[in-house]
UniProtKB/TrEMBL annotation:
Lineage: Bacteria, Pseudomonadati, Pseudomonadota, Betaproteobacteria, Burkholderiales
Residue ranges occupied by any DUF4399 domain in the UniProt entry: 54-141
Alphabetic keyword roster: Signal
Organism: Paraburkholderia xenovorans (strain LB400)
Protein name: DUF4399 domain-containing protein
InterPro entries reported in the protein's UniProt record: DUF4399
Residues of the signal peptide: 1-17
Amino acid sequence: MYKIIAVAALAISAAWASPNGAIAGTTPAPAGAYAYIGYPNDGQVVPANKPFKVWFGLRYMGVAPKGVKYPNTGHHHLLIDTDLPPMDQEIPSDRNHLHFGAGETETMIQLPPGKHTLQLLMGDDMHVPHNPPVYSKKITVIAR
């Protein structure tokens, strides 16, 4: 009976470890750390088919390039029109998952007309989310 309770408790805690139920990576994140998009704002209209700036914010944590393993640091990944990836694996690198492994804190992107979502996710020195994962709220922008 006690084994069943212990297994159930482990399963519940693993599900709480990340937003999609997967166990998070092994690199610890500092307590209370969070990422945010400083610009554009949620619901903002941005120019369609023209570059515009996206500014990355981070609190209670530092930025370090890919491959640099230093406590309480990571680098940004911008998720465009997608949900958070599995938290226990390397963040994909494709048109929906942009990597900023040089430690960048802003970028210029271009979107086609329509509604789009943007979200930041911090990765460790090997592009794996921290434990607990550090990510921003998902915002919506309208490209017109």
